[in-house]
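Hi X.,

You mentioned you wanted examples for the new student's onboarding notes, showing what a folding record looks like when two proteins sit in one file. Here is a clean example. The first protein comes first, with its sequence line followed by its structure tokens.
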Amino acid sequence: MVEEEDLKQWRDAGHVARRTLDGIKGEITAGKHWNEVIDSAERFIRRHGGHAAFPVTISVNDMAAHYTTNSLLNPPEGFEGEMIFEKGDLVKLDVGVHIKGAIGDNALTVEVGGGGNHTEQIRAAEEARDAAIEMMHPGTPWHKIGAAAGQVARDSGFEPIKNLQGHQLERWNLHAGTSIPSYACGSKNSDFKGTCEIGGIYAIEPFNTTGGSGMVKNVSPSDSSNILRVTGNVKIRKALAKGKLKPLGATMARYIEERYSTLPFAERWAYPLLEKPFPEEDKESLRRKWDALVKKLTEIRFVEVYAALRDADGGDVGQFEHTVFVTEGGPEVLTVH
């Protein structure tokens, strides 16, 4: 639980996260490449005194979450054409900022060109988030908060996504144990036991869909998000001593851990680190070395990789998100101006 004296950094992180969303959403226009918006958002975060708590993600239409571009600018599997926004696209922009590990996490959904094809879905996603937040008083069971969000989606003609949840935040820990439903999971659901706690900080992010099942699925391969994370479970020195890592692999692992701690990071952030020990290598050779390094670090469980997520039925997905601090008097939204 977060004490009052620690809150300034959490509020500052939330403030920068919100300013980033508001400052960048206007760049999501027809003809622009996804990576331009991602790069612009990450630069905005740095300019305003924050660090990315995870890679900025862009999810278009049936893509639900956890996709960022890689250094090769390869599109996600199953995506036809270039990663260029088109009029009518339903786009989720998800931004996380940390200040000394204190995290602000927020997201919004826009329709490219504002043609009005997705107005109701966008409104329903935002109102579901706000309905859930209104319920966040100490002692409220999580299933009631989920039901509030799910009711808004259903009343608006959309399906709440059941296998994506909100999550507790702790310093340097984006997903800190407690998961928060966004649908009527019922009081007996063992995945969502417990209640909203004073001093807790939670990311509230209901997703809705035009798909029928309300489920998302992984996009293959297993690292399709282009996002990785140091697990914190493996000590580099021990891995080196046991022969699980060679000296160069240990050096690279140390670089990565020092830069990102246990927060998620992008392949495109870490890949250039290889150019330092191998300045003369060509691109193909560097790519082979990178792939081998990630394979090894994943095998020994020093890092984990994530899959991007898309709607299981090909439906369009909407999402809004705030970071909330729970006080004795109720919720305080941290991701505000």
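Then the second protein repeats the pattern, sequence line and then tokens:
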Amino acid sequence: MSTEKPLTGRKVLLIALAAFGIVIGANLAMLFSATGTFPGLVVKNSYVASQQWQARTDAQKALGWQVEIGLENGRLSVTPRDADGALVQGLDMIATIGRPTQAKEDRSVELQLGADGYSAPIALAPGAWRVEIATRSGPAFRIGAALTVREAN
């Protein structure tokens, strides 16, 4: 004698609705998570931003600077060198640091000139970071880089 209950149309409908409910719920969770973090907006109006792009790029290339960006022992270092390899001094530089996919951890630090270049102390959690270095006065210069902070052992 079998005690199994038969598979009825009502049970199949409930199983199908539950399966679709789980899929739709997961999709909605991912949608809200994706749109609630980094919106993907880099500039407010890309057309306006592009109008002077080539002129700024050409002017920056004409400087002939080579820039090294590093992060070691909680210190961000930026070393701009001119075409002759000499350290470029007298710049007012700022670094904007944040995560590549969200804006909530973005912060800016002023870089101070030292013997080996410009630097600033900064504490960053492990993971991927993006940094953009820009001059606030003097020759206009802007450069970005990706940084990875490893967990301390």
